[in-house]
Amino acid sequence: MAPRVCILCCQAVKWAPVVFISAIVGWSYYAYVVQMAILTADTIAEKIIFLVLYHPILFLFVWSYYQTIFAKAKTPPKEFFLSQTEWQQLESETNENNQRDKLNNFAKKLPIQNRTIAGFPRYCEKCKCVKPDRCHHCSVCSICVLKMDHHCPWVNNCVGFHNYKYFVLFLGYALLYCIYVAVSSLKYFISFWSGGGATGVGRFHILFLFFVAVMFGISLISLFGYHIFLTVHNRSTLEAFRAPIFQTGADKDGFSLGSRANFAEVFGDKKSHWFLPIFTSLGDGVSYASRLQPTISYNTMGTTPRAETTNLGDGVTYPTRTVDLDSDGLLGQRQRWMEEGDTESSYENKGIESA
Ligand SMILES: [Zn+2]
Ligand SMILES: [Zn+2]
């Protein structure tokens, strides 16, 4: 009984931020539509304009939020997981050189470019899998998430390959919602101080509506701006904190293919779909074109073909180099499976979750 209560308590805590945001949005609907547009607006024309402009913005905002929350995180394909036998052999091996060889042999057939600081394929001891490029283990979700950006408590979900476009749109539409509400309620906010406009409790709804819209709007500007910056530079939040390591060393711009191609990788190549929270990101989330490997020559685990990547370039050509696991000059250094000397849960401990 006790564990069940604990699980329910945990779930309640995890969903609390989502409930909080939903409650704010629900209240703002009442304050804007009922108190301001219907009961307070001066003319019929003003009422109609307020209502007609408000609802499409709200719809896109709520749709993006819903998609970000409920998109199921993508995990590595089964080819990346060690079998029970392979895992036991790896665990029972006491010689680090032999462990390294076993892991390298296993990873040889996989389309990976990213390494640990010591040159190893990146390995998740919890999931018992080799991590695909840009994939990280989320200590909250307890799974490895493809192109993990961060775990976001405000959506109670990991943000990654499966929902990054939704997340950026959610921030954008939330900002637009705040700006629209603040600008259209400004006139009635000013009249509050001069004693005009709404009467009774409606005055306070409009007053707080303006304050809340401005407050959220200010915090969203920097967050939305930061994620647009990350999108056009083809970095995840985790990669912005710690550059991914390639055959040639750490490179924070390793996956950057030019701003247009980077944008297309997240938003797709159909302009008509860019602003809708439907999945149009390019690729399969498992393997990525990079500056070292501008086109993907392998069939990535038999999932979504990534033929689009050859059209992503912006005219810049990069030297092509294939990944050769056996010629890694970094392997002579201290051997570690985890990245750069600590556990990946340290990402979360550094406050990245709070985005
Ligand atoms: Zn994992
Ligand atoms: Zn997570």
From TrEMBL:
The broad enzyme category this protein falls into is: transferase
Q: Residues annotated as region Disordered?
A: 329-355
Instruction: Cite the EC number.
Output: 2.3.1.225
Q: Which UniProt keywords apply?
A: Acyltransferase, Membrane, Transferase, Transmembrane, Transmembrane helix
Q: How is this protein annotated for GO cellular component? A: membrane
Q: Where in the cell is it found?
A: Membrane
What the entry lists under InterPro entries is as follows:
Palmitoyltrfase_DHHC (IPR001594), PFA4/ZDH16/20/ERF2-like (IPR039859)
Q: Where do transmembrane segments lie in this chain?
A: 12-32, 44-66, 166-186, 206-229
Q: Name one GO molecular function term.
A: protein-cysteine S-palmitoyltransferase activity
Q: According to Swiss-Prot or TrEMBL, what is its membrane topology?
A: Multi-pass membrane protein
Q: Which reaction does it catalyse?
A: L-cysteinyl-[protein] + hexadecanoyl-CoA = S-hexadecanoyl-L-cysteinyl-[protein] + CoA
Name the predominant localization.
Answer: membrane
* The Palmitoyltransferase DHHC domain, residue ranges: 121-241
Similarity field = Belongs to the DHHC palmitoyltransferase family.
Q: What is known of its domains?
A: The DHHC domain is required for palmitoyltransferase activity.
Name recorded for this polypeptide: Palmitoyltransferase
List the taxonomic lineage. Answer: Eukaryota, Metazoa, Spiralia, Lophotrochozoa, Mollusca
